[in-house]
Amino acid sequence: MAIKNWGTPAAAAISSSPVSGDRTVTAGSGGTIIGAQLVNARAEGIMGTDLLVTTTRGILNSGDAKTDTTCADVSACTLTTRAAEADDNDPATTEDPAGIVQVRLTGNGSTGTAQVTFRDLASNLSRTVAVVLHGTPASISAEVDQGTIGIGGSTFIVVTIVDADGNPTVGSFANVESGKPLTPAKVPPEVPAGSAAIIVDHSLAFDRNLPGTANDVPACNDQVNADPTPDADPDDGDPSEGNIGANPGTNIDGKCVIQVSAPGGGTPADATDDASRGGHTVTVKAAALGSASDEVTLTISVGGAPTSITSDAPVSVDPLSTTKITYTVLDDQGVRVGAVSATLDQIDGSGKVTAGESTAMTADGQRSFTYRAPSSAGTAVFLVTVPVGDSEVAHEIVVAIGAAADAAPAAISLDLRTGGRIYAVTAEGPSTMASALFGDAVTSAWKYNQDTGAWDVVYIPGRSGNFSIATGDILFVSSPIDQTVGG
Prior knowledge:
With about 475 residues, the chain is mainly β. It contains one helix and 37 strands.
């Protein structure tokens, strides 16, 4: 009889269990089965070796009937790796390879993260898997990816549901309890009465798909997912990958999403589009929570077409400094427009834009760029453009390198009253001439000579006199009307 040489243990590999959703356990539930396999250098399973299994939280029990029943409501026990098992339906096929042990972890009222470790004491090889033990849902919080969206646009509310100890719960569901406008919408006459109350739509059928990550946060309801993407590797234990078609509720981080969209945005634009513009409140409630205190209300604004752009650019920057500048795209009511295409170009001056140049989408109606100033003084000019139909909205940003030039003082001005009156010039400003200040707006003007105590030559428009006027002078002016001159 041939005796197989199993070789020296080379690795303790976590098997396919627990899979994605099973890396969490609700306290008091049936728990989850965790498996490990001891293999040699040829990746062959090794049978008949004792593995010490320990957990930092919860309790351990035997995983299945194939495993020695030496774990019974304990935090540590020893299991023996088993031989390969043939498939009952096809004896020629191996159902489970050699070297496997399995153990069931239950919460037993404990919450937190359990570190379950499998260790071969002879070789000191070990492998640890983290499993979140959580209680029943106790509180909900939420935030929005973008607080402002455009007509026809959408965003996601990211909901987080945790237990009483703050641990994320898995498989919890949430829905929109209510949504209403903060202020009455400006609705054209052709919009049916009452339609302004239906201002944003919500959907629980879409996972959030950040760039490069498919379905990174699942939708908040247990209906069939509208955009399922199978997990590329279900056995790798990564719960952030994919979705097989039915929404499981909150993920391992206790998060799920609700998509919120503003109706409209079609071509040609519908008259009802403006009904969704402005600010709206959306109240989200977790399905398993019973009290009104366990709901959360957020504000989402809906902007119209871009009409203006502002920025927080400083008047000047120091040479060789690095400055982050943010610009904001607004509609005709001063509301951010959400996600729109915006282009940033440096059109004049030295220095360099190190991040944010070229075309990209705004977020919450905003986008930033970073400018690295040169060593010498000068001026840099940037142009932001946003397409609107066949036209565009443009905004010029001018930044001085070095000390900004002093602003020119305001020109002298006088508030005149009908008739002849004496005026003291108190306004700060550069000296000017009587003809420049008064033009033909007055009947006559005199200047008092404070050295001689006499009134100097009179100014009569188009006829005689012209004298300088500076702060501190005293004038006698005859005006045909109440008016302001200069400035």
